[in-house]
Structure formats: structure tokens, C-alpha cells
């Protein structure tokens, strides 16, 4: 889905957004505040900064999560995180992050992101994100 | 304490940085042998990135401690491994495990224990960290973070291109009947696709974790402004698959073994990776030479 199409879908669904469940009961939602803070792993819905999903930890299944809307607070949108992310920011203080997608043969396809705090395009994994893993260090998992 | 840290660095350097000071003699670009589990090291010189990352993290930790912020150093800075290993290709993961693993873990992953985690809510920490990061980069020659960013971009572009090549052209043609045979075998095993008639692994939820991790959730930071928090280590957590996931994982593994599926996929992966490395040889030669030089500087720092 292109960026324009994503924006239209988002506006159309905004009314219903706040009544949807954002994540499973034991959800990882970062600091649950707008913006991408020190230590968080943040996925962005498009090239803007209004739609975001934050994590503290590794997550092997993005399918249970919704993107959040950044505003004066951080509320659930109607957009799935799974196969729907455009950018990532890795603000983990100690770990790199790998973003993964399972291809049609069952292989994990990985892209790596050092903890350089830069916002980076997911490239070939844009809209193909199944999971992310904190890695590259024994302290990370 | 410092002596202990230096000893650890020397040991790491001697293990992972053979030839750093005299230049690296391993083949690069199109001359690299494709060994599934060693692509990260052989093609991208991931071991050199591991070393430099460790050395710069040590330098940053010591620098921060000198600025009154010992948290990173005290949390323990340990050598990393596996930089740029995401193209270590050896066939699909679900087809590489044994039956016990497939039954117990399905398509999920246990979570390994993690160390202490440092979280800054202190602008002073952040400012010092930025300065220490620049200082560490300068000590290893000044372009480590530039080269890391460029290799990250190249790796990710190659990973995406590899996937494109696997899913199109002669690779897709070659693997289509292999995939179809696997799907037929899954059906013979009694599995049914989520959408009737769909003949993909995704439709049978092969590779998809559906279970949950057991054990305590990780500690949540308190985020008190002006403080630096250190979260305690997180113990290991076991993954428990759903019964359906476990059954699917066992069936998929049995079918893959029966058909030689992993080997067939891995063979095409290797061929496409070889082509891709050839197409990116100039950039790989440039970046691996630069990280080799930086690793040499890092090794000199360690060796004094």
C-alpha cells in the first residue's frame, strides 16, 4: 500500500480507532507516550511521525499489535502493525535490532538496524514486517 | 577493574581479529566461498564490526564513567557476535530443527536471559553519551559509524534484493514444484489451509508462532525525569506453542525431511547469493577494506 493510500485508510478509520484493542493483555507498548524515547524500538506507519508503535523488547509476532496515534496522548489506531510498517528507529541503548519477515518458502528474511537512533526506511521489508529481535550482544534477547 | 577489561579486550582481539594489524587477507566480493552459516563473517566481515562495536562500547562506557555516569560500564559491556548474519542461509528454520524441538517449541523461540538495561531520563546523560560516542569514534579513526551505516544500508539492500530474486525468475520457477510438493505433503498429513484452496505455507501457518512466553514479564522503567535507571537482568523465558502450532511444526518438518526441501531451497539461496555478491562486489570490497582498517586501529588501542 502506498503512502497516500495509507493516509486515506487512516482517516477513514480514525473514528473507530479508540474503541479497538491495541495489543494483547501482556502487551509491550514502550513508555506508552507520544514520540520515540531513549531505549525504545519504534516502528512508523509512513514517512510522517503521527502513527507509531513502540516496544521495549523483542517481539516475534507483530500480528497481535495495532499502530498508535501520536497526539496529545498515545491512542490506538485501526491499523495493524503486521506487514504495515514503513520506517524503524532503534533507540535501544545497548542492542541492535533485526526486523524479520517469513517469505513464501518459510525462510526468515532479516534486515539489521544498529542502535544509532536514526530513523530508517525498512526497504524491502516495508509492509512486510513479521517480527523484531534485539540482538548482537549477549545482554540482548 | 580496568586491567580486567583490557584483558578481555585482548582475548577478544586475538580470537576475532587475526591479521587486523597487517590488513585482512581473506577473499572478498566474488571470490568469497558461500558457506551458509558464515556469510556474515566471510562476505560482510561481521566479526570486524563485532570487534569495533565492542571496543567503541568499552570506550564509551569508560568515558561515561569518567563523566559521572558509570551505569553503562557497570551494566557489563560484553563482546557481541553475529553482525550482518541475516544472510547466513541454510534453508528455512522450520526445516532445520529436530522433531523434539518442533514439538516442544513449534515455530516460536525461547527468550534468552538478558543483562541489565540502562535507561536514561537525564539530558545530562544523553549529552555526555553523544560526546563520548564521538570521542570513541575518533579513537578508532573517525569513520566507524559512517561505515557501519553504509554497511547496514548495503546489507539491507542486498537482503531485499536476495528476497526479490528468490521470489521471481528462474528461482521461483525452480522452487514452485518443490513448494507445491511440500504443500501436498502437508495436506496428506491432515493439515488444512486457513483459506480453503490456498496452496501457500502461510495458509497452513507454517512458521507462524501462535503461542506465548511463560515467566515474568520484563520490568518496566519508571521514567523519572532527571534519573538514569538500571533495569535488572531478565531471566530466560520458555515459549509454549499452541497444540495446533506444535502439530503443524512436526508435520512441516517431517514433510521437509521426506522431500529434501531444506537442501533444495538452500541450494537456490546460495546460487542467488553468489550472483548478488558479484553484483555488489565493488561496494563490498570498499566497505570491508574500511572496516578491516578500523578494526586494525581498534586492535592497536587494545594492544596499547
Describe this structure in words.
The complex is a heterodimer of chains A (141) and B (304). Chain A has one helix at residues 3-17; strands at 41-44, 51-55, 66-70, 74-80, 87-90, 96-102, 108-113, 119-121, 131-135. Chain A is mostly beta strands and 141 residues long. In chain A, the strands form 2 sheets. Chain A has a 6-stranded antiparallel sheet. A 3-stranded antiparallel sheet of chain A has the order 7-6-9, with no helix packed on it. In chain A, a hairpin with a 5-residue loop joins strand 6 (96-102) and strand 7. The model of chain A is unreliable at 11-23 (pLDDT under 50). Chain B has one domain. Chain B has a two-stranded antiparallel sheet. Chain B is flat and about 65 Å long. The relative contact order of chain B is 0.20. Classes of the chains: A mainly beta (141), B mainly alpha (304).
Strand neighbour order, sheet with most strands of chain A: 4-3-2-1-5-8
Estimated radius of gyration of chain A: 14 Å
How many angstroms separate the termini of chain B? 17 Å
Q: Beta-strand level of the residues of chain B, as a percent range?
A: under 5%
Low-confidence stretches of chain A: 11-23
Biggest beta-sheet profile of chain A: 6 strands, antiparallel
Number of helices of chain A: 1
| Percentage of residues in strands of chain A | 25-35%
Instruction: Indicate the overall shape of chain B.
Output: flat
Number of strands of chain A: 9
Helix content of chain A: 10-25%
Secondary-structure arrangement, i.e. CATH architecture of chain A: Sandwich
Total strands of chain B: 4
Global morphology of chain A: globular
pLDDT < 50 runs, ≥5 residues of chain B: 1-22
Radius of gyration of chain B: 23 Å
Helix-strand topology string of chain A? HEEEEEEEEE
Task: Kindly report the CATH topology of chain A.
Answer: Gamma-B Crystallin, domain 1
**Largest protein interface?**
A-B, 41 and 69 residues
How many domains is the backbone of chain A divided into?
1
- Major pleated sheet of chain B: 2 strands, antiparallel
Amino acid at each position: 500500500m502506498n503512502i497516500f493510500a495509507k493516509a486515506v485508510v487512516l482517516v477513514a478509520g480514525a473514528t473507530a480507532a479508540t474503541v479497538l484493542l491495541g495489543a494483547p493483555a501482556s502487551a509491550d507498548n514502550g513508555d506508552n507516550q507520544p514520540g520515540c524515547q531513549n531505549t525504545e524500538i519504534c516502528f512508523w506507519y509512513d514517512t510522517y511521525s503521527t502513527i507509531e508503535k513502540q516496544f521495549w523488547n523483542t517481539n516475534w509476532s507483530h500480528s497481535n499489535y495495532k499502530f498508535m496515534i501520536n497526539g496529545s496522548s498515545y491512542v490506538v489506531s485501526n491499523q495493524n502493525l503486521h506487514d504495515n510498517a514503513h520506517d524503524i528507529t532503534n533507540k535501544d541503548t545497548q542492542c541492535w535490532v533485526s526486523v524479520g519477515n517469513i517469505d513464501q518458502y518459510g525462510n526468515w528474511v532479516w534486515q539489521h538496524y544498529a542502535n544509532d537512533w536514526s530513523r530508517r526506511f525498512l526497504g524491502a521489508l516495508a509492509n512486510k514486517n513479521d517480527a523484531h529481535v534485539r540482538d548482537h550482544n549477549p545482554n540482548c534477547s | 577493574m580496568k586491567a580486567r577489561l583490557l584483558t578481555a579486550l585482548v582475548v577478544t582481539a586475538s580470537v576475532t581479529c587475526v591479521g587486523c594489524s597487517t590488513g585482512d587477507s581473506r577473499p572478498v566480493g566474488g571470490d568469497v566461498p558461500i558457506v551458509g552459516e558464515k556469510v556474515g563473517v566471510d562476505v560482510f566481515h561481521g566479526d570486524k564490526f563485532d570487534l569495533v562495536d565492542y571496543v567503541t562500547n568499552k570506550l564509551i562506557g569508560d568515558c561515561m564513567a569518567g563523566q559521572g555516569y558509570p551505569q553503562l560500564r557497570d551494566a557489563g559491556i560484553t563482546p557481541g557476535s553475529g553482525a550482518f548474519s541475516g544472510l547466513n542461509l541454510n534453508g528455512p528454520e522450520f526445516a532445520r530443527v529436530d522433531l523434539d524441538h518442533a514439538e516442544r517449541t513449534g515455530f516460536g523461540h525461547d527468550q534468552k536471559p538478558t543483562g541489565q538495561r540502562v535507561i536514561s531520563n537525564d539530558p545530562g546523560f544523553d549529552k555526555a553519551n553523544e560526546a563520548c560516542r564521538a570521542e570513541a569514534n575518533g579513537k578508532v579513526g573517525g569513520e566507524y559509524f559512517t561505515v557501519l551505516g553504509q554497511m547496514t544500508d548495503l546489507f539491507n539492500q542486498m537482503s531485499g534484493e536476495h528476497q526479490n530474486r528468490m521470489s521471481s525468475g528462474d528461482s521461483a520457477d525452480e522452487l514452485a514444484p518443490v513448494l507445491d510438493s511440500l504443500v501436498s505433503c502437508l495436506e496428506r498429513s491432515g493439515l488444512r489451509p486457513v483459506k480453503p484452496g490456498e496452496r501457500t505455507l502461510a495458509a497452513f501457518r507454517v512458521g507462524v508462532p501462535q503461542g506465548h512466553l511463560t515467566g515474568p514479564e520484563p520490568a518496566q522503567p519508571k521514567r523519572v525525569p532527571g534519573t538514569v535507571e538500571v533495569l535488572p537482568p531478565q531471566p530466560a523465558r520458555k515459549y509454549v506453542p499452541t497444540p495446533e502450532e506444535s502439530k503443524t511444526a512436526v508435520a512441516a518438518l517431517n514433510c521437509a525431511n521426506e522431500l529434501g526441501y531444506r537442501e533444495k531451497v538452500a541450494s537456490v539461496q546460495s546460487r542467488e547469493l553468489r550472483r548478488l555478491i558479484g553484483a555488489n562486489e565493488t561496494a563490498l570490497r570498499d566497505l570491508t577494506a574500511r572496516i578491516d582498517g578500523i578494526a586494525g586501529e581498534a586492535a592497536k588501542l587494545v594492544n596499547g
